[in-house]
Please model this.
Amino acid sequence: MSNIYTEPAQAAQTSVTAGSVFNNEKQPSSAETENETQAPTQSIEPNALILAEALSDKTIGWKIHNCKITKKTVTQDLPLPFLYHYDSLNDAIKQANPLTPALLSQFNTPMSAHEAAKLIGINEALITSPWHVKIVGSLVVFSEALQLAVRLHWTNTGKDTQQLYTQNEADAITAAFKDWQFFWSYRCTLQKANLNQYRTSRQATLRIEANADYQCLPATHALVVIAKLEADKIELPWFEAAIVERVE
Model:
């Protein structure tokens, strides 16, 4: 992937919106402009790139590069509130060890399975410890035709970790990524920028100078992109295939 970013960027100025890849609508006339002032409507200039739509466009031929893990936590050793440990017990053990005022007072106290077992007065082996899974990563999608690369960030959960009761670590990771998600830390880069891409509308417009370095998308644009990708995720299986291959 490093070879993709070595060519010098051109001087063309570019604007990208986060909301059809290119739109060839004609320029609005002066009368149309007056009407738009009275009753605003979206106006898209020729060659406007709408990033959210572009990333979901199957005809562009996006290629995935450099899918990697940046943070990984998979363990059974993290503490949990006492109530999680107690709820993991089967009904027979709960009946033999009913909740007392002393136990209820510890419901939200984080502790290990060993500490919970000692508090209840049972063998530690009777408490099932979940796997705590938190995996964060990124990937880059690149279009040769557009000379556009977008780095997307993904994870299995927005929480500190996801707790999963499975037989082993591999099963926990598989279960965690049944509902993976993109998150908003988006970066994008344009290269060569040989197209005069821009858009004017009521929506915010992001103007990007052609640059070989990644540039952060503002949160307003990034959130639109993530919403579109999440909505279309089932129809874009190459993202999941790359991510699942990396985490397994």
